[in-house]
Specification:
about 400 residues; alpha/beta; 5-stranded antiparallel β-sheet; 13 helices; 15 strands; globular; disordered N terminus
Amino acid sequence: MSLFSSSSNKASYGAIIDIGSGSVLVAIVKSDPDKVYPEIIWSKREYAPLRNTASISDSAKNVMSSLVSALMLLESEGRKVFKEKTGANRLPKTQVTIAAPWSYTTTKSINYNHTEPFTLSNSLIDELLRTAHKKVEEEIKENESINQLGLSIIARGTIGLQANGYNIISTNNQETKTLKIVEANAVAQDYLIKAIQDASHKVLPESELSLFSFMLIYYSMVKELFPETHEHCLVDITYEATEIGIVRDGLLTHTTHTPFGSFSLAREIAAVLSVPLEEAYGYLKHSEGIDELPESKRTEVKKIFDSYQAKLAELLNETGDTLAIPKKMFLHVNLETEVFFSQQVEAASKLATKSSHAVYSISGKLAESYPEDMTAQLTSGKMDTALLISCQFFHTERDREEFEHP
């Protein structure tokens, strides 16, 4: 199925909430199956204050505050625009995506092998999935670190089905000796889930709520955009986190993240240069400005970048994947900093493997894929690619329906 399509028979409306590591996006979208792109009726992003934070819990409080502010804007400004443009009041669906470090994405493989051929059936697959669900839930209960963090499953779905080592789309009662099912699970912080549920119930009581990790929809989008690319590395850099996913044979197999992102870098630069955080962040958007600094300051900033590359290299080697990092890497980051971070990811991957890797910017790819008016909004900073990814996932209804929400 193409990324730019939908399976519904009529237009549907929904609210989009994208909870990043340092900001919260809210939007209202119209999905018409006869249109290539969804229509973004209204959107706003609320940023957590760019300031020094003592801990990840402080960042969480800032994001929760942004969530409340963003939903208040949706209720006041968004509803008004929605009513004026459509004449409707009801938003029947709310799609929430949660990025690292507030969400985690894991995958589990279920293998069923026989010496003699057996017939594939939906009932067999359903039975194996029930067993997998039970094992995942037991592992979460038994995992002390997960229990301490307070995590619960928000979405799960089958992302891969292989018979005799080949990917298949449906069972068709075919015979095989081996069956492999890959299931993806997204979990999130309990306090965040409750905050989302409480807030959405107050602001969007008429809406059906569905939650996803950002890595799940990022993986789905890249799979649709590049169907011939079966082995690659996904990198998502947000304000307060960096998340990595490894895709093998077209399936998401390993993920990991660190609570260190672009704002984290800005804080370190600000401390070294003794400048405001906003000015320090500007060096990530226009890194050529660093060349104008005194040599001693340039050296200090370079040490910060080298340290970040080392962190990335360490993260790339901590995915749990025993093979070398795939040569092809897809990067999603704020459009205005993609040049800088493309360089950082390329250097980090070479540091990790001692070989060169090709880094492709998803942000730029999305900008190229949309009409000129939307591309202009992207490049001017009035729209961000995380919004487009979330809205496009909402538009591809079949993709959303592949997941259930326990």
